[in-house]
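User: Can you help me understand a structure? I only have the sequence.
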Amino acid sequence: MEITLKGDAKIESIPSLKDKALRINLNENIYGTFAEIGAGQETVRQFFRAGGASGTIAKAMSAYDKSFSDAIYGNEDNQRYVSEDRLKKMLSHEVKLIEDRLSRDDYPNKMFFSYANTVATIDFAKRFKGHGWVGIKYQIDSKQKEYNEITLHIRFKETDARLQQETLGKLGTNLIYGAYYKYNEPKKLLRYLYDHIDKDQLEIDTINFSGPDFKNVDNRLMSLQLLKNGMTDAVMFAPDGNNVLPARVLYKKNILAFRGSFRPVTKVNMDMYEKSYEMFLNENKVEKEKTQVVFEITLSNLRASGGEIDEQDFMDRARLLCSLGQTVLISNFQEYYKLVEYFNLYSKNRMGLAMGVNNLIDIFDEKYYRHLSGGILEAFGKLFYKDLKVYIYPMLNENNSMTTIDDLKVHPRMKELYKFFKFNGKLVNIKNYDPEILNIFSRTVLNMINKNEQGWEEMLPQGVAEIIKEQKLFGYEA
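Assistant: Let's start by predicting it. Here is the structure, written out as tokens:
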């Protein structure tokens, strides 16, 4: 790799795709198969064109026909061929074939790999831009019994199938190269996936590392890197703490979302959730089994005072929410209407937002919408266009009075707009809240933890204080 100088700093030049493919091809111990479904054999083409591929490529194939594909990799009960399950079947099947057909006695030093993708490019009507799963299962040492695996989900942004195919070929080459030469620096590996690719060409919204060489990699932190690097707008974690594809969780669901800092999650947060959830389930066309609750944290809420994202702080918050059985979304959507637009990508069903009165005040602040040509009216059109309600949790004032949507003061210019949404039932008070806990604030709890004061434990949901103490979260010291 060439090194160029700029002032006193050294800058690594990006190797060309040909150089990357050639370096793989010239490594006499790297040997494997390419299985690509849905967008041509664009990745393996890079390796054929680079030269010296005969020592690297054992087989290249495309099984486009579903029946033929099923005959090779097995049936898909849900008939979804562009899926993570399909990708993993492809990777495992091809690795097994290599091991079955090649004797280790004859190839003692070969590091086997299987690269695969299953994608759908843009449709003819250009209504759906396309998406896909890409992955590699491979060895770093020929004596490894357990293989490493990297899998990722992508969304195409280009509006031409040929361009999408070319982008996929670049991504695949970057992935294979990074898997072998940057596996010990997974954060760099992630960034290098976009070598020769612009962010407006491709989105990576899910990535998972597994295997012996990635045993110390936390996939939640790797997902956070996707956000930090501008590779996606949102990432999601299931209650078990693992990465999950948002489209899979949100597809055709009724969605109830809570935004907060959750630093840490308190009894107030959970009371807001329980009471608004009960109200949401009583709405027309809302069925419990088709409803998804999401706790969302914006990227700005993860930033430390210096502007950098505090990764450990992020881990602490996500861990606590997941321990309470919640699904967590981390996003870069500062405005609520962008969050609703994101949900609308996956579902057209009923939606709800639950928040405190103080957050509602921010929603009616014009300064957040100056970048829109239509200002706050454009934002509210996007926010309330769909069948959405906002559930408002009351606020306890210093004089022990209560602020609800009925006595909230907004800017005089916003008064009529506020009345419109209130009287049309878009804004509703959360009922049956617990008045005994309204004086609990996350910042108070955090301050007490940092100062090692007594009494913060009873302000948190059951079991949360124990986790904070056991794992010494939020700076806790016994």
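Now, to help you interpret it: The chain has two domains: 3-217, 247-475. The first strand starts at residue 3 and ends at 6. Let me know which part you'd like to focus on.
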